[in-house]
Write a structure and sequence with these properties.
six-stranded parallel sheet, L-2-Hydroxyisocaproate Dehydrogenase, Chain A, domain 2, single chain, binds ligand NAX, about 325 residues, Lactate/malate_DH_N, 2 domains, tricarboxylic acid cycle, L-malate dehydrogenase (NAD+) activity, Lactate_DH/Glyco_Ohase_4_C, alpha/beta, Rossmann fold, NAD
């Protein structure tokens, strides 16, 4: 269509933003037929840097890029937004307790949820990347009561892609032959990367690996702590891989997931798999007709049950904490 889609990106001057914006402008977020208009939100101190990135976006001469605007006011930035990528967040600094972290992020995601509620387009889709992503998404969602709850999601696609890549390396098979991997729960160290239902060239992955010890003691912690490994080796946190996962998440949400496979996304629970309704938790999902659906009917063994429960318990604690802070 010729009408551009409005894509709002927060934290636009950050390192994920820098990797993300050029891929959006090139058409990889929504598809090669869709024009996009970028709306960048930054805090006042970083607006000038975002304006610099906007100049570079102009210099890309992207045929699909219909314009770039920079804002320091959430109300203006989310006005008319069709897609919102909430990347900017308050990082945990030394000596900061979890309660302080949730409170600081509440100060960001509550007003952003309100701004989305009052001014975004009717078809708004929100992906929260900024950590703690699941609970930041919950704060934004609960402060946007007029927007269908299913439009708020948090990113576990990077964890999903990491799990696929680790399995591919272990078995020496291309990533294209791996399907049905799942990330359950919170985007945190408690997440559960699940290979029980995964397939490698159509065969069960866990059986193909044939080494439960490797899955429990190497695969799961490696995926869950990959962010720390990247920081150690690269000297900075994951940025381009996170941007790439955000592109994958929104592309699949809008365009659908391939038949015979699923992916992972944190979406509002409907109570499936014993995850309390209303929590924003990662599930195995497919996208059909522009909506995420939880894959139903998977058998959950005892090992998986205890891992899922532990991560979901952490999400429930975070929800209680933000309730007590009056953020939701
Ligand atoms: P940076 O610190 O490079 O950039 C963050 C940007 O957000 C800064 O430019 C800052 O000025 C801006 N910002 C802060 N508050 C804002 C507000 N209220 N409105 C608009 N902009 C605001 O961080 P970066 O490496 O880009 O990471 C961004 C977030 O992604 C972090 O919270 C990080 O923890 C999270 N991540 C999430 C991942 C996931 O899988 N869900 C993986 C990668 C990443 O760690």
């Amino acid at each position: 269509s010729d009408t551009p889609v409005n894509v709002t990106v927060t934290g636009a001057a950050g390192q994920i933003g820098y990797a993300l914006l050029f891929r959006i402008a090139s058409g990889q977020l929504l598809g090669a037929d869709t024009k996009v208009k970028l709306r960048l939100l930054e805090i006042p101190q970083a607006v000038r840097a975002a304006e610099g990135t906007a100049l570079e976006l102009q210099d890309g001469a992207f045929p699909l890029l219909a314009g770039v605007d920079v804002f320091d006011d959430p109300k203006a930035a989310f006005s008319g937004a069709n897609v919102a990528l909430l990347v900017g967040a308050r990082p945990r600094t030394k000596g900061m307790e979890r309660g302080d972290l949730l409170e600081a992020n509440g100060g960001i995601f509550k007003p952003q949820g309100e701004a989305i509620n009052s001014g975004a387009a009717d078809d708004i889709r929100v992906l929260v990347v900024g950590n703690p992503a699941n609970t930041n998404a919950l704060i934004a969602q609960r402060n946007a009561p007029d927007v269908p709850a299913e439009r708020f999601t948090a990113m576990t696609r990077l964890d999903h892609n990491r799990a696929v890549a680790q399995l591919s390396a272990k078995l020496g098979v291309p990533v294209s032959e791996i399907s049905k991997v799942t990330i359950w729960g919170n985007h945190s160290a408690t997440q559960y990367p699940d290979l029980i239902h995964a397939e490698v060239a159509g065969k069960n992955a866990a059986e193909t690996v044939g080494d439960q010890q490797w899955i429990a003691d190497e695969f799961i912690p490696r995926v869950a702590k990959r962010g720390a490994e990247i920081i150690e080796v690269r000297g900075a946190s994951s940025a381009a891989s996170a941007a790439s996962a955000a592109i994958d998440h929104v592309y699949d949400w809008v365009n659908g997931t391939p038949e015979g496979d699923w992916t992972s996304a944190a979406i509002v629970s409907d109570g499936s798999y014993g995850v309390p309704a209303g929590l924003i938790s990662s599930f195995p999902v497919v996208s059909r007709n522009g909506r995420w659906e939880i894959v139903q009917g998977l058998e959950i063994d005892d090992f998986s049950r205890s891992r899922i429960d532990a991560s979901v318990a952490e999400l429930a604690e975070e929800r209680t904490a933000v309730e007590r802070l009056g953020l939701i």
